[in-house]
Design a protein that fits this description.
The complex is a heterodimer of chains A (85) and B (151). With 85 residues, chain A is mainly alpha-helical. Chain A is built from three helices and two strands. In chain A, helix 1 runs antiparallel to helix 2. The radius of gyration of chain A is 12 Å and the shape is globular. Chain B is α+β, with helices and mostly antiparallel strands and 151 residues long. Chain B has a six-stranded antiparallel sheet with strand order 1-2-4-5-6-3, covered by helices on one side. The longest helix of chain B is centred in the middle third of the chain and has 18 residues. Classes of the chains: A mainly alpha (85), B alpha+beta (151). At the A-B interface, helix 2 of A face strand 3, strand 4 and strand 6 of B.
Chain lengths: 85, 151
């Protein structure tokens, strides 16, 4: 399974929708009604899945599925600890 | 270590809705180990279930939530006078109940903060009786100000 598919699976489960229904550019809060706690759960799930550390400040960037994928890729391409990607 | 009386001062909940008896270990901002002993004189044995007393799983969840609340309260500046925040359970993920718990047993609650930012925390919890894991899972919490609608 590709990284994009894995992340989509993780996000869809937390958002509570089928993967096929998850618009990769839908804003978690404005379009999907998520709150900040669900956003933190997504961040923690990504960290756990890929054994990386993501600075919580990056939550501000992780507002859509595609942006979560981008942040994750940036972290994986660095040393595994993403501070200010 | 924290005694029951000290726990009651930290929690917003009041007896008989205090589900933690003792704190055994506490690492500020990181982890906590607490104890809750289940007694036959509590309300639930007669009701859940008559003739076959089982400590309700939802009470185990509440024990964990209160344990985490103690950890967060003891680890932050929220104890300041006039503070109006309390910790609310925001979500339960991948939680499993593996064994029943009966009156006469004590549950040992071990909670570790996985991720925390101001006002929110995600926690991994394991509950044991003796060396047997009876429940485990992940839970998320958010700080709520009194008077707000909880969002």
């Amino acid at each position: 399974m590709s990284l994009e598919c894995e992340i989509k699976n993780i996000v869809a489960e937390i958002v509570g929708v089928e993967e096929t229904q998850l618009d990769p550019d839908a804003n978690f809060m404005d379009d999907l009604g998520l709150d900040s706690l669900r956003a933190l759960e997504i961040l923690a799930a990504i960290e756990n899945k890929y054994s990386i550390t993501i600075n919580p400040e990056l939550l501000q960037r992780m507002t859509t599925l595609n942006k979560v994928i981008d942040v994750t890729k940036d972290c994986l391409n660095s040393t595994g600890e993403c501070q200010t990607c | 270590m924290l005694t029951y009386d000290e726990i009651c001062k930290l929690l917003k909940q009041k007896s008989p809705f205090v589900f933690v008896d003792k704190v055994l270990e506490l690492e500020q901002g990181k982890r906590i180990v607490a104890l809750k002993c289940i007694s036959g004189s509590e309300l639930f044995p007669a009701l859940h279930f008559p003739g076959s007393s089982v400590y309700p799983g939802i009470f185990i969840i509440e024990s964990i939530a209160q344990t985490v609340s103690i950890l967060c309260t003891a680890s932050s500046d929220l104890k300041a006078e006039g503070d109006v925040q309390f910790l609310a359970l925001g979500g339960i993920q991948n939680f499993q109940f593996l064994h029943v718990v009966k009156p006469g047993e004590c549950i040992r609650i071990e909670a570790e903060i996985i991720k925390a930012v101001p006002g929110m925390a995600i926690v991994k919890a394991t509950v044991k009786t003796g060396n047997t894991v009876i429940a485990k899972g992940q839970m998320s919490f958010g700080a709520v100000k009194e008077g707000k609608d909880g969002q």
